[in-house]
């Protein structure tokens, strides 16, 4: 195996691989990336057995076709320290040594035979649909912060994706909750698709986000019983799904929250962020004291002190309620409009948050017992 590749192309591909490969893998081969050079393409594959990432670099000068595997983190560390955009020459000098050469540097990296790399081939093609990369990224970003970290309820540690219908319109809807807060967002599909409801694991979500941030185009999605496949231009991500039943989240959406608070988004975000600074662990609730057109925010921490701030808002009622500041900041950071709308019922009931700039997303936040 012998080929030349551009430094930036290789660095980007290996950077994506870092998100897939487990740092403390028990199997040495799982710390490696599979490199396959053929037909003027270099294909790089990384896996942790639950997630497979395949990336293809085109227009590679392949002098001799072949494949091998080498330690992903070491190779990435070397490649990113080479001069940007330069040509890198790679060759398999013997079965267990990969020579990496650029400008005046030469490295010889240990290899494990490509035949030991675990690859699974599955037929996904029976049900496939496409959506725009930016739309999929929107769904992931609006929901990912509400995913649960609680290992005991594994079915909450991912985003629930399913197809919904409203009147005659079809949507791909995403929902996530950690039982303290919930995000729901949807995007319009141009037709009804053949798509079984799935729960996408957290690691896959973050890997997919990093791919989508630098890609503008269509994403092809296909799923079979326990796996899902995302195809981008030069990358494929195949992931196992979370086995479990996502709760009926529709029941949790407050139905009778009539008290509407309307406020400038940036003012609100900055204000909550400032007031929460007095609490080191952000566990102290930020207290809302609402009266007509005035919101008084306050945080009180027994160890460090207290902070308060007053904002002019649109509100017609009197209400006192407390929230975890982190939850409010997470939601507010994902809104698209200039304003935030929060609908309340009473002190002990969940608040419903809407984004006037995006009618397809809603958020629910439980109050803290103040």
The first-level CATH class name of the largest domain: Alpha Beta
Radius of gyration: 25 Å
Overall number of domains: 3
> What is the first-to-last residue Cα distance?
66 Å
Stretches where pLDDT falls below 50 for ≥5 residues?
none
User: What is the CATH architecture annotation of the largest domain?
Assistant: Roll
Silhouette? elongated
Helix percentage: 10-25%
Mean pLDDT: 95
CATH superfamily of the largest domain: DNA Polymerase III, subunit A, domain 2
Number of strands: 25
Strand order of the largest sheet: 5-1-7-8-9-6-2-3-4-17-16-15-10
Structural class: alpha+beta
Largest pleated sheet: 13 strands, antiparallel
The name of the CATH topology of the largest domain is DNA Polymerase III, Chain A, domain 2
Q: Strand portion, in percent? A: 35-45%
Helix count, DSSP H or I runs of 4 or more residues: 6
């Amino acid at each position: 195996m012998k080929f030349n590749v551009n430094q930036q192309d290789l660095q980007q591909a290996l950077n994506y691989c870092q998100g897939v490969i487990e740092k403390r893998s028990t199997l040495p081969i799982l710390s490696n990336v599979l490199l396959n050079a053929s037909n003027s393409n270099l294909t790089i594959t990384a896996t942790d057995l639950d997630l497979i990432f395949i990336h293809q670099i085109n227009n590679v000068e392949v002098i001799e076709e072949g494949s091998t595997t080498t330690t992903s983190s070491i190779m990435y560390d070397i490649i990113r320290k080479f001069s940007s955009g330069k040509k890198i020459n790679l060759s398999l000098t013997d079965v267990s040594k990969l020579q990496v050469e650029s400008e005046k540097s030469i490295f010889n990296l240990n290899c494990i035979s490509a035949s030991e790399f675990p690859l699974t081939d599955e037929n996904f093609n029976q049900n496939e649909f496409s959506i725009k990369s930016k739309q999929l990224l929107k769904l992931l970003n609006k929901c990912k912060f509400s995913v649960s970290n609680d290992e005991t309820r594994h079915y909450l540690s991912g985003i629930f994706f399913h197809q919904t219908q409203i009147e005659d319109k079809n949507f791909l809807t995403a929902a996530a909750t950690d039982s303290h807060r919930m995000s729901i967002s949807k995007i319009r599909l141009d037709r009804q698709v053949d798509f079984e409801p799935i729960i996408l694991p957290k690691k896959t979500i973050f890997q997919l986000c990093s791919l989508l941030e630098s890609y503008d185009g269509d994403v092809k999605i296909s799923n079979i019983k326990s796996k899902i496949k995302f195809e981008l231009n030069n990358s494929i991500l195949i992931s196992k799904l979370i086995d479990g039943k996502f709760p009926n989240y529709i029941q949790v959406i407050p139905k009778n929250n009539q008290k509407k608070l309307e406020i400038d988004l940036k003012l609100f975000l900055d204000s909550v962020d400032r007031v929460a600074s007095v609490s080191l662990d952000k566990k102290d609730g930020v207290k809302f004291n609402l009266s007509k057109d005035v919101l008084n925010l306050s945080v009180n921490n027994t160890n460090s002190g207290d902070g308060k701030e007053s904002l002019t808002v649109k509100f017609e009622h009197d209400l006192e309620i407390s929230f975890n500041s982190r939850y409010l900041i997470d939601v507010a950071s994902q809104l698209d409009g200039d304003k935030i709308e929060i609908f309340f019922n009473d002190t002990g009931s969940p608040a419903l948050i809407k984004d006037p700039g995006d009618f397809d997303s809603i958020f629910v936040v439980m109050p803290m017992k103040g």
